[in-house]
Amino acid sequence: MRSMALTTTASLPVAPTAPPVAQKKSTSVTHHGLTVTDDYAWLRDPGYPEVTDPAILAHLNAENAWFEARMAAQKPLVDTLFTEMRGRIKEADKSVPQKDGDWLYWIEFEEAAEYKKWWRRPVGSSDDGSADELILDEVALAEGHDYFRVGAMSVSSDGTMLAWSVDDNGSERFTARVKIIATGEMLPDEIPGTLSGLIWVKQDTGLVYSLANEQWRTDNARLHWLGTPTSSDVELYHEDDEGFRVGAALSANERWLIIGTSDHETSEVRLGPTADPLAEPILVKPRAPGVEYDVDIWEDEHGGDTTLYVHANDTHENFRLATASLADPANWTTLVEGTDAFYLTGFELFRDFYVVEGRRGGLDQIELRWYGDPDRFEPIAFPEASYDAGLGDNPEWAVDKLRLSYESMVSPATVYDYHVLDRRLETLKVQEIPSGYDESLYVTERLEIAARDGTRVPVSVVMRKDTPRDGSAPLYLYGYGAYGIAIPPGFSTTRLSLVDRGFVYAIAHIRGGDDLGRAWYKAGKLERRTNTFTDFVDAANALIGQGYTAPGRIAIAGGSAGGELMGAVMNSDPALWGAVVAHVPFVDVLATMLDETLPLTPGEWPEWGNPIEDKAAFELIRSYSPYDNVTAQAYPPTLVTAGLNDPRVTYWEPAKWVAKLREQKTDDNELLLKTIMGAGHGGKSGRFESLRETAEEFAFILWQLGVGG
Q1: In the annotation, is 224 catalytic?
Q2: pLDDT for res 683
Q3: Is 560 one of the catalytic residues?
Q4: Which of 283, 348, 385, 462 is the most exposed place for a label (fewest CB within 10 A)?
Q5: Can you give the pLDDT at residue 598?
């Protein structure tokens, strides 16, 4: 035993004493008479998505070794933060059961479990556990996998079968399976490569799904009959435009199959009866550039009229809600007008009423409306001035109460039932924080700062009430600003580890998201993309001006397109930031948008522009693409993460960026790259494994800003 121990110790790798330096291999491309040189393009494995090149793997492993060496001294702080964060999670926890047909469904975490279990019991049965039925055990399924994620999950309409899909490597290519719930018997049906929901049709004899093609694009909707080989599956719809993606869903009353196809600004919908999925589909309205719409169907249960409800931006960019007949589905009659003041984000139909969701002044709104009475509507009131609220899971057609979710930057997540008849919110569950949480110690604010062009940009802030406003506090500023995705002012238990150490935590609701409506989104895309970056910088300067913090005391963070934001503002205003964290950052924008073989590129052109065909788009993207604009200057301390199997932001983007930063930067500040070798875009999958990644991020920030642990 002694000799074995000595041998093991002697074979331990020696910690690196200097960061890895990537080899330079110059390549170039020319478009529109303009040439772009790239010294690190070789970091893209030509066999991707398989990454086997020894030199590339060696470089990524060397970067990981450097990360571990530099973070080694912070391990006690990482452990402390992780313990804090885990202590705020109720480990043995369950969701509020929800009725769907003859069953009540819920999910449950057991003590120390990374993954959840899915349960149900018959309606009306005892809640003592005697009637509980385990329908999916993620804990058992994840055993032996470094990464595990359930994608789609769907119980058959008769309640006897479960279809679900799993990704066990982070590639976001899911394998779908089916089992008999009562016995656990696995049916032989297995569909690899899905990237979609799983829709039961024709009295539970078939499933509709979409496959990811070789470029990770869902250009199809397919029908699988149970008990038949997947080679005989029928393609119900194929999309020829490589920029569009296809998905399927059920109507609210589950009688109609809805097949939609869309890119970032145009959509088209087809309908077919679930009882006969092979019937010729009904095209609602042919696609028109810039027109987005989605559809649901209301039918009188006694054989009356069928009415289409259409959510569309054809008459106003903030969308309207319209109706149409099945006989003339393209003829839309406005039911709820689109307006500048109200951004109508969606709707849900129920048997006796429908619900409209949207935002007014950037804050969530939920309104109940009644069929046949357009003047009657009831907004649901919430108790705080700034919050995040929305419809929860409401699977049934005939309901007299609605499941809602609610939280704010100081209020933990709350589950409500809204009783329709008496307009009453019933609290069902409030997020428990086992280690303790006193809401009265914190304050949240919603500011409006002036961007350099005069636009008023919202910023949500949370901090302890005793945090000074004299410029001495450190500040964590988060931003995203792309794809029309709003960042809500919600609650976070991990955030408390910074706020309780004196940080001000702020979210900049910058242009490029749709926080203030569709115009807000459009003002941060294509030729106006740089508004996103300048809004973020202007928000930081305004927070400095109002005494929340000082230059160099700001930690900033963003992921994916938010990582692009990090790279852009590091290039433009490096001295503002005391630390930067860029998760799976989309930083090699020009090269990616020039490569139409990459999974997302054609579908992204409406967002960023097409630099292959448009010289102006080429020049604009080149002017802000973070990788292309790294220069010889001092950069702030930076932590970058990547996922080897990431199909959204490929691993070589952050790897190339870090290599170029190492070459160009004139400072001695930390620059760390951590590539997770067995995961994708979302990082590690377990609820505690992902917490440790957050603990590492926060430890890096505390270390670089000199804030005590």
Answers
A1: no
A2: 56
A3: yes
A4: 385
A5: 87
Show Cβ contacts of residue 171 under 8 Å, excluding neighbours closer than 6 positions: 49, 645, 647, 680
**Residue closest to 309 by CA, chosen among 350, 363, 339, 274:** 350
State the total domains in the chain.
2
Q: What is the pLDDT of residues 386-408, one digit of tens each?
A: 899 999 999 999 999 999 999 99
- Domain contains 197: yes
681 is catalytic: yes
Interatomic CA distance for residues 685 and 139, integer angstroms: 12
The boundaries of the domain holding residue 200 are 145-283
Contact 476, 555 (CB under 8 A): yes
Higher-pLDDT residue of 709, 393:
393
On whether both 505 and 607 belong to a single domain, the answer is yes
* Residue 63 located in a structural domain: yes
Distance CA 33, CA 421 (A): 67
- The confidence score (pLDDT) of residue 6 equals 29
Shared domain for 70 and 184, answered yes or no, is: no
For 603-615, write each residue's pLDDT tens digit.
899 999 999 999 9
Burial class (CB in 10 A: 0-12, 13-18, 19+), 276: exposed
pTM of the full structure: 0.91
- Is the pLDDT assigned to residue 595 strictly greater than 80? yes
Domain-located, residue 361: no
What mean pLDDT, rounded, does the chain reach?
94
Residues 500 and 575 in one domain: yes
- Residue from 167, 210, 646, 685 carrying the catalytic annotation: 646
- Which of these three, 283, 300, 316, is where a domain ends? 283
Tell me the C-alpha distance between 383 and 405, whole Å.
13
pLDDT band at 373 (very low <50, low <70, confident <90, very high): confident
Mean pLDDT, range 155-161, rounded to an integer: 96
From the candidates 210, 411, 681, 685, give the one annotated as an active-site residue: 681
Taking CB atoms within 8 Å and a gap of at least 24, the contacts of 313-321 are 313/338, 313/518, 314/288, 317/517, 317/518, 317/519, 317/522, 318/342, 318/343, 318/344, 318/517, 318/518, 318/519, 319/292, 319/343, 319/344, 319/345, 319/518, 320/344, 321/347, 321/356
- For the chain, give the number of residues: 709
pLDDT bin (cut points 50, 70, 90) of residue 304 is: low
Q: What is the CATH number of the domain that holds 497?
A: 3.40.50.1820
Q: Encoding tokens for residue 347? A: 């709707």
Amino acid at site 653? E
Point out the catalytic residue in the list 386, 560, 625, 685.
560
671-676 and 93-94 strand pairing: unpaired
Domain identity same for 544 and 638: yes
Q: How far is CA 287 from CA 265, 276, 327, 521, 554, in A?
A: 10, 25, 18, 21, 45
Q: Are residues 485 and 559 in the same domain?
A: yes
Of the three residues 229, 260, 283, the one that is the final residue of a domain is 283
Q: Is 9 a residue whose pLDDT tops 80?
A: no
Same domain, residue pair 78 and 150: no
In a domain, 409, yes or no: no
Residue 688 confidence class, pLDDT cut points 50, 70, 90:
confident
Judged by DSSP in three states, 446 sits in strand
